[in-house]
Amino acid sequence: MSLASRLLQLLLGLFLFGIASALMIRAGIGIAPWDVLAQGISLRSGLAFGLVTNLVGIAVLLMWWPLRQRPGVGTVLNVLLIGPSAQLGLHVVPVAQGLPWQVLLFLAGLVLLAIATGLYIGARLGPGPRDGLMTGLHARSGWAIWKVRTLIEAAALAVGWSLGGNVGLGTLAFALLIGPLCGITLPLFDRRGPATPPAAAPSAD
Fold this sequence. Notes:
This protein is an all-alpha fold. The protein has nine helices and no strands.
């Protein structure tokens, strides 16, 4: 793929990622761990969810420094663009009314997020800030990727829940389904060789 095509794929993936997060939030039955954290901070601080998403991304990116991780253009755009996209989605998408609509909206967001993940990772222009933190800690600690990922996700979830973020059945469904779904979308959109393992897929970048 040309650089222009990869950049376009990256931008589309990041935009859809934010919209997917908004869909799951509006479903109201539980959200991804990092969104729980951002939502909790938003509720406590009064700052918009999209802005908090950006600030959390910047904070995570700063953690790369001692781990000697190098961001790419995709990393920077990830930090800058997912927050505004999510905020746009929250302005456009109404709150789901009734459990059937809530489940439907959540599932739509979950599938869209998996597609978005495949798009932006498949562009190969740099990992998301949380992915880089995961691989950096893996390299430094020697722990298995899944252990590092679980620890990071659990910490974000615990802090976000304590701050009032929405944890529910959707959170559990996300944890169980996002890996298999990304296992489908990552090779589908990767144009340059073997896909990034599903374990490295972001939860809600």
